[in-house]
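Table S7 (text form). Paired inputs.
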Amino acid sequence: MSRRAALIDKYREYLPLQNDSPIVSLNEGYTPLHTALNLPKILKFPDLKLHFKLEGLNPTGSFKDRGMTMAISKAVEEGSKAVICASTGNTSASAAAYAARAGLACYVLLPAGKVALGKLAQAILYGATVIQIDGNFDQALDMVRQLADKFPLTVVNSINPYRLEGQKTGALEIVEVLDRAPDCLCIPVGNAGNISAYWRGFKIANQKFAKELPRMCGFQAAGAAPMVLGHIVENPETIATAIRIGNPASWQEAAAAASDSKGFIDCVTDDEILEAYSLLARYEGVFCEPASAASVAGLIKALRNGKIDAGAEVVCVLTGNGLKDPDSALKMSTVELRPVAPNLECLQEAMKLK
């Protein structure tokens, strides 16, 4: 069986790489486009053609790997010895893993008590220096910028110009599978880099292959919705920790992506996010982290209020794996996991078998 090319090697012609640029890869990308079988009927939109881009199947469990392979590869090319990031979790895991692969030191600043333990565990085990600050993500990113100005550290947040370049490959993969762009792309919005990156990718596909352009539909959590409110949110709060950001770094580019594509940026409540999170698992067998489910929650809201056509072809980007944040699943579960005696009578009673 032939070995597949590293993601950024495959799309090299669309990326700022030299012929001799080093490639730091963990075999990221190539994630499935999973077609929904049950949700359109459950939601009473049977004509909806719905697909999920399963980015949680990247090596560290999130879409961040697409951009990180690019950012770390360029850091190595430019002679960097250390990288730094602020993170709500997924960036820290990805940065730490790719830095370990490249032999670079990695420094991570996290908002204390606001990062899912699965992500924190990854960053620690990959060998990063992890520091929790008594503040939010936006404050952590400000500190990262200041540190990078004083010390020889490469910032690998989405303010790094190479991050979004790598992330745009997700759009190219979607077009390859569908042989066209979908009518709409629904995507969570936190720091707003991913929606910006996907729009870049779709525009490349449109120019190179005369493919259609989708409407870009981004969804913030209601408690962290600066782009919807029109102002910075000083103390963002949401169960969807990955998008708990009050001042997105890519705000302007994301707003332009939505406007230029005739799409929109909206917000969804935590209850709406958790409903979508549960529906995905129960009816499609897809376990994503809560922030990922914001794309599906937003789609449901948009279908119900007529902002997305009921017969459209839609791709929802599911940005992270559910195992990143298992506590959320357990907290909302009503199942009692009480032990029973190991005999058939007790098991039959517990299973309600007659």
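Next pair, protein 2 of 2.
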Amino acid sequence: MIKGFGVYSKGNVGWIERKDYVCGPDDVIAKPIALAPCSSDVHTAYEMEGPHLINRILGHESIGRLIEVGSNVKDFKVGDRVVIPCTTPTWKHPGIQDGTHQDAGGPFAAINFSSYEDGTFAEKIKVRSADMNLALLPDDVSIEAAVMATDMMTTGFYGSELGDVKFGDTVVVFGIGPIGLMAVAGAKLRGAGQLIAIGTRPNCVALAKEYGATDILSYKDGDLVEQIMERTNGRGADVAIVAGGGVESLNNALASVKAGYGNVAMLEVITETETLEIPNAYAGGFLFHKTIRGGLCPGGRRRMERLLSMIQSKRVDPGKLITHKFDGLESIEEAFHLMVDKPRDLIKPIVYLE
């Protein structure tokens, strides 16, 4: 049997036992080396519901050591240390030829951990399409950086891709939790000029500056759109990335980007409302040519290898996001509830299992 921490039903979490996994020909089985709880795990447990989320092991940020390898797997062997992306598509699905791999097979089909299949908060992790989804953990990449690359880094960086940040662009990042901090780092590496970060927690503000923010704004100092306009001499931003603040931040982002070509990248998952209301003035009756784009972060082996290469080259260190450390499988529960409570000094926790 396999023991894991998960959700019995909406709002009810605890320890679950599962029959030992069967390794398919394209799969691998790994023992976790390190795990990290995520706000998405909290959303899954307390805000989402459906038959696929009953009696489900949570978790999607992990690195592991392989203990079993399927017969079709060519590039990995037992004993390898691997980075397991949070997004693991079934790459043989024909829908990949029509659109984004994240949705091939249905909406969010690639985020199968803790949704369509058991997640990573367990004694063992099963990974599908291993040759296409896993990346070897380089010896010169820390455990901490690797775990943060599996979701925080790839998702944060996706903000600049969705927003199409160009050299010299003025970029605003709403929310500087772990995703927003990685959005700041990604925007700098993508070539942003003025880079405005919005947040108040002192440790996040300090890290935002370290990752490349040129300006810090706070909602405590007045209307954010007015502050952005003041900092940009009335021009507004080329790109706004929303990584926190919900619908209010989305509307502020839309209001603060330039008419004609302003882009809004939506990284935050909005779960607290069934409807979204956009003030007509912010969109100019939809005549301002402002673009809003959102989506699940890209997955797959090459994506992760590219991110790990940036860590190896010392372009960025996502391991700095970690503020709380735990040891042992049993401590997953405490680390998870830390993400529920979100104390002011928290950015990200990590759980070591090896």
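The chain has two domains: 2-137+317-352, 156-294.
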